[in-house]
Amino acid sequence: RAVSRRLACGDVEGRLEAIFGRVRAIQAKSGRFDMLLCVGNFFGSTSEAEWAEYCTGAKKAPIPTYVLGANNQDTLSYFPDVSGCELAENITYLGRRGVYSGCSGLQIAYLSGTEAQEQPAPAHSFSTKDVEELKMSLLSTPNFKGVDILLTSPWPRDVSTFANSAGEIDTKKCGSKLVSDLAASLKPRYHFAALEKAYYERLPYRNHVVLQETPQHVTRFIALADVGNTSKKKYLYAFSIVPMSAMDPMELVKQPQDVTENPYRKLRKEAPKAKAEEEPACQFFFDLNKHQGKKRPSDGKERGNSQPKQAKKPPQPTGPCWFCLASPEVEKHLVVSIGTHCYLALAKGGLLPDHVLILPIGHYQSVVDLSSEVLEEVTKYKAALKEFFRSKGKRYVLFERNYRSQHLQLQVIPVPLDLCTSEDIKESFITQAQEQQIELLEIPEHSDITQVAQPGTPYFYVELDTGEKLFHRIRGRFPLQFGRCVVLASEALLALPQRADWRQCAAQRPEEAAQARAFRRDFEPFDFSLRD
Question: Is 444 exposed, middle or buried (0-12, 13-18, 19+ CB in 10 A)?
Fold first, then answer.
């Protein structure tokens, strides 16, 4: 296999002797590199005298050097041909946009300039049309998996979502949304950018949706500082790469331990919607015990017969249970609604006065153990609570921990609509999970928890009132108050860390009874159990 040794650098800004001197020193110490890739501003406002020596051949770049085009009006004159050209011996301008394919098979996609803020786009900027044409030139090729390298001058907007901090750079405001869209579509293995005078190596992110798509390679985003900066920030990055086309497919898709969720997930979600509508409805079971992400169509033969699931009696508790409604241990003053198979109760030591639990009347350990009629009533309670909380200007987040618990408790916590979006809630859970090395995966919207976990499987599960779901298969220890702590600690949600321990939040019985009466009264118009 042909291993390529490459160097990438940030804004040169005309400091040619500085960058090429550094390259010579590295090669003297570490051996020859094949290529230098330059992102950001290659030329500066005082480049002319130094550049003239390279144009005349008096000086020469030590290795083949490939640069992006102008990012401002002042340096446009250095780039005579928008389609790319040799600027001096060993120094090549790649062009406005395109794909460079080396003889080794390495594919490098590039986009010059900054995102246009006006129309028509200035010569030093790119437009939506530029990005769409570059995407289509690659996405239309048969069996496209991604590119090896993507070069842009601006950072992609939101690149630090789900990842390590970018320091002083606010990635929600800085960078280009079009570059984010390009990166989401082209799935580069390495993406280099500059312009912000900062070094940032993001944790690698995955390019597939776990449990929905077959595993794909990860992307490493690296932003580089300006050459010769006084703060000693890293501006030169050395790496070795085997072209994707020459790699063993299993080796290519290996996921590093520190891999994160895709920061452009929203963009990826919006793109395939039209296509998804065309696909025939097909039910899938996702088997976490075997190869991750493997799909098995459900055709009725999967479990050996096609008979409908029979209603079964719930198992009996082995000892006292605080949540079986017939049990003397149940604190019945907290109960606010009783259906045929389930009931609602205020949470003891709840985060808020309207923090409520959905519980089966019989003894079931988890959602995956529920019979079809109990599951149907759980769904009705979710719908009623969604309507109720929306009438109060709130949305709910629901979670279940099937670990060190004997009776199913679905925790339902309302959050003000104007405080956060469903994406904010998901991001809070995923970010907190990553910080604690918990792999929290998004599962398909039209699947349910019973397709992901078998009865007896320990797990943690989050569901939003939009139907979006997150799942973690518990294989060892797990923080018992994880869900509660995420909702409490996140500034996007409640930001009430002092209420992390429910025991410290429990009110006196008369106060709890009064809260239950108030909830029961407010919930009455939405309570189907009073009408059925």
Answer: middle
Q: What is the rounded distance in angstroms from the CA atom of residue 243 to the CA atom of residue 500? A: 49
First to last CA, the chain: 69
Verify cis geometry, omega within 30 degrees of 0, for the bond prior to 320.
Answer: no
CATH number, domain 332-526: 3.30.428.10
Tokens 């984010």 appear where?
A: 180
Hey, what amino acid is at 357? Answer: L
Q: How buried is 168 (Cβ within 10 angstroms: 0-12 exposed, 13-18 middle, 19+ buried)?
A: exposed
| Alpha-carbon torsion (324, 327, 328, 329), positive or negative | negative
The pLDDT of residue 122 is above 60 = yes
Measured CA to CA, the distance from residue 333 to residue 513 in angstroms comes to 5
Please name the amino acid found at residue 439: E
* Tokens encoding 525: 């118009």
Torsion angle, CA of 167/171/174/178, rounded to 10 degrees?
A: 150
Q: Give me the CATH code for the 4-253 domain, please.
A: 3.60.21.10
Domain boundary assignment for the chain = 4-253, 332-526
pTM (2 d.p.) = 0.63
Full DSSP string of 232-293? ----EEEEEE--GGGS-HHHHTPPPTT-B--TTHHHHHHTTHHHHHHSPP--EEE-TTSSTT
Parallel, antiparallel or unpaired: strands 4-9 and 35-38: parallel
Amino acid at the residue 115: E
DSSP label of 289? T
Among the listed residues 244, 212, 226, 200, the one whose alpha carbon sits nearest the alpha carbon of residue 108: 244
Q: Which residues contact 64 (CB under 8 A, 6 or more apart)?
A: 34, 35, 36, 90, 92
Nearest to 184, CA basis, from 56, 299, 249, 272: 272
Q: Name the strands in the sheet holding 85-88, side by side, starting at the edge strand that comes first in the sequence.
A: 85-88, 91-93, 65-67, 35-38, 4-9, 236-241
Tokens 């699947």 locate to 447
Q: What's the token pair of residue 491?
A: 């500034």
Q: What is the DSSP letter of 332?
A: G
Residue 301 in this model has a pLDDT that exceeds 80: no
Mean pLDDT of the chain, nearest integer: 85
What single letter denotes the amino acid at residue 386? Answer: K
User: Which of 390 and 4 is assigned the larger pLDDT?
Assistant: 390
Separate counts of helices (H) and strands (E) for the chain? 12, 25
Residue-wise pLDDT for 133-162, tens only, equals 999 999 988 889 999 999 999 999 999 998
- Report the C-alpha gap between 532 and 529 in whole angstroms: 5
Decide if 4-253 and 332-526 have a common fold. no
Q: Residue 176: beta bridge partners?
A: 156
Question: What residues contact residue 170 under an 8 Å CB cut-off, 6+ apart?
Answer: none
Q: What is the mean pLDDT of residues 400-426?
A: 90
Tokens matching residue 247: 């790699």
Helix intervals (H) in 149-272: 177-186, 249-252, 265-270
Main-chain phi, psi angles of 425, to 5 degrees: -65, -45
